[in-house]
Amino acid sequence: VAKSAGELISGGTFSGSLGQNVLDSLTEGHDVRGSWHFDEASGISVLDHSGSSTAHDMTLVNDPSRTASAVGALGSEATIATEFEAGFGQYGTVADHADLDTGDTFTFIALIKPDDLSTNRVLVRKGSGSFEVEILTTGQIRLNKAATANIVATTNAGIVSGNWYLIVVTKTGATVAIYVNGVAATLGALTNNTIVNTTDALEIGRNAADPTLDFDGVLSRVAVLGEALSATDVLALQTGRTLYLWDNPAADGWDVAGALTVTLAKYSPATGAAYLPEIAVSAVADGTYRGIVQT
Q1: Residue, of 182 and 278, whose pLDDT is higher
Q2: What is the pTM of this model?
Q3: Where are the beta strands (DSSP E) in 14-99?
């Protein structure tokens, strides 16, 4: 059982694991247009986990390989990711759909491990005029209006080859934020350009106009939202959530005789190292269990 931060979870004698993938949990109360895990063991399809009424499954082009993921990244247990090699025309493509046209308000999320930054590397674009996110040779992250103009770049992202990073880019009008591993990056001068909807496919890891800028590295999670996530939402992606357990037999009719056991393991997306959060659970005289699990 796992709900959004602040929700109440009701149940009887509870024994289990709370470790829902945090990107999946974004479907609760957030405008997720597409969410791809890149953890299929084989094949050319990457399933869309957004929960949209229309599934926007991705097609992998030119057979990118599977490799090890950051174990437990974003709260999942997936150990498979997809590796793209620049120069081989490898990328992911999702057919055009109104769901993927976010206009000038959006969030782009990617869990990545770049392998080669000898040239700029494009993470996402949807044709001319769409939003485009790229990693520069300097390790900065830049948001562009594709084939039109640069909007803004970070000054302190420090992206280097061989490390895992959770990248989040948000825009709503002239307000832009770029986060690296849950922390808002310092931005340089911003020249606002309005992002427009297009009829092109959404492409991950590809710049159709200049294939030398195709992404070279590993992708483990990618999502597109039709809203600009808050800094609190972004931090939750990196560190997990606060989950509240509240079992009230009088209100909910559950039998709470017995012990309440909570086991929660989370992982660092940057290192893959496991850690256990603090857990506090208590029972009061009327048999009501109240607890807070702080991840």
Answers
A1: 182
A2: 0.76
A3: 15-17, 32-36, 45-46, 58-61, 65-68, 80-84, 91-94
